[in-house]
Design brief:
19% helix, six-stranded mixed sheet, 9 helices, seven-stranded mixed sheet, binds fe (ii) ion, globular, Immunoglobulin-like, 2 domains, Purple Acid Phosphatase, chain A, domain 2
Length: 447
């Protein structure tokens, strides 16, 4: 009998060993790459995550005071990478509704069958004028040499920020190693993006396969109140006293994906800016702030894209020869206050500028300036290292080549504060400015 039980035990162990568990086993459906993003109004928050295997359920359990007494379901879509391995990932997207503005919620995501994520928390959006918006703003952060990541993570966990604006270029590149670089990056930012909305625009490093991983994995809001896909290229939302627009400069450079994208985006931008300038809307959300990846102006020596004295900026001037669909005039016509850019791996603060001419305010450069203020902030860390500066331009106010990121506080209708954090100098603030406006709207040459 003892002999028989020994044989049975051996057979059992052999069976277990032959059923070696692999990563492809459907039992592994635990969420990863968890991040949240704003919807179009404060009652909404979108939770997005990835499973590596087919999981049909997309559930978020959430609630106030650490009690997960509410449950929302969403949908799953397939991201098929176009690399040689044709890897598939499963993108889960759940929209939380009826949130109370400013209230803090805990949540986890996953499914009853395949398991749940760790516990995260967030504060629901506020777009009342009394809300002081605190954002971190940066571009060009890779999965490796992400110098700003530890400090951003710490600041997020300490509650210093309400949201992130990532001004394009991430992972370097998301499609590398059959999309695994994208996976690693999205997992790396989870310690930030799981807690505060991670609002993005695309950069040139997301361009592979028509930006497929970027459009699949993020969930920016469309004006139709759907999330992700094309909306990740251009969208807008209101927070505090600001109307914030994310858009793609890359449509102007990757025209193999279609010229119509430039036209569609331009028309949408014009429509969005017109609506934002309707008196009631501009009074409620006086600040109009844009973010796009490739700058209209810079003084770096190695990039002709934004050296507009010698070169030609597609984004600023429009398509070559026809000079159509340029954005500088459009943005100034509708009184855009502040424009964030990246792509240059450095920080540059510009004097208020329009048509290569500085238009400082009469009581101070940034007090009621007569042109938009441009900030180039693309130094959060990537394997390509820094971009050197050339000769300063007339619009150059301050520049710095340390790794780092920007902080923006929007205090009220008239006062907005910006500062630049240097990671090379242990988190020291190396630049700061107040933008003060007694009125918002088109600049004098358009009135
Ligand atoms: Fe770039």
């Amino acid at each position: 009998m003892a002999h028989l039980s020994g044989i049975l035990l051996l057979l059992f162990l052999t069976a277990v060993a032959s059923k070696s568990i692999s990563y492809d086993d459907p039992v592994f459906g635990q969420p990863e790459q968890i991040h949240i993003s704003y919807g179009l109004d404060p009652s909404l928050m979108v939770v997005t995550w990835i499973t590596m295997n087919p999981v049909n359920d997309s559930i978020v359990e959430y609630g106030e005071n650490g009690v997960l007494n509410q449950r929302a379901t969403g949908n799953v879509s397939i991201f098929q990478d176009s690399g040689t391995e044709k890897r598939r990932e499963y993108v889960h997207r759940v929209v939380l509704r009826n949130l109370k503005p400013g209230h803090r919620y805990s949540y986890h995501c996953g499914s009853d069958v395949y398991g749940w994520s760790p516990l995260f928390w967030f504060a629901a959006m506020r777009n009342d004028s009394g809300f002081v918006v605190r954002a971190a703003v940066y571009g060009d952060m890779g999965k490796d040499i992400a110098y700003s990541m530890p400090r951003l993570q710490e600041e997020t966990q300490l509650g210093h920020f309400d949201l992130i604006l990532h001004v394009g270029d991430m992972a370097y590149d998301m499609n590398s190693d059959n999309a695994r670089f994208g996976d690693e990056y999205m997992n790396a930012i989870e310690s930030i993006a799981g807690y505060i909305p991670y609002m993005t625009c695309p950069g040139n490093h997301e361009n592979a396969y028509n930006f497929s991983q970027y459009t699949a994995k993020f969930s920016m809001p469309s004006s139709m109140n759907t999330f992700g896909g094309d909306a990740n290229h251009f969208y807008s939302f209101n927070v505090g006293s600001a109307h914030i627009i994310g858009f793609s400069t890359e449509f102007y450079y990757f025209t193999e994906y279609g010229f119509d994208q430039i036209i569609n985006q331009y028309q949408w931008l014009e429509q969005d800016l017109r609506k934002a300038n309707q008196p009631a809307n501009r009074a409620r959300y006086p600040w109009i702030i844009t973010m796009g990846h490739k700058p209209m102006y810079c003084s770096n020596s190695d990039d002709n894209d934004c050296l507009t004295t010698e070169g030609y900026s597609y984004v600023r001037n429009g398509l070559p020869f026809v000079e159509a669909y340029g954005l500088e005039k459009l943005f100034a016509q509708y009184g855009v206050d502040l424009e964030f850019w990246a792509h240059e791996h450095s920080y540059e603060r510009l004097w208020p500028v329009y048509n290569s001419t500085v238009h400082n305010g009469t009581k101070g450069a940034y007090i009621d300036p007569d042109a938009p203020v441009h900030i180039v902030t693309g130094s959060a860390g990537c394997p390509e290292r820094h971009d050197p500066f050339g000769i300063p331009r007339s619009w150059t106010a301050y520049r710095n080549n340390d790794y780092g990121y920007s902080r923006m506080n929007i205090y009220n209708a008239s006062h907005l504060y910006l500062e630049q954090v240097s990671d090379d100098k242990g988190g020291k603030v190396v630049d700061s400015m107040w933008l003060i406006k007694s009125k918002h709207g088109p600049y004098s040459y358009f009135e």
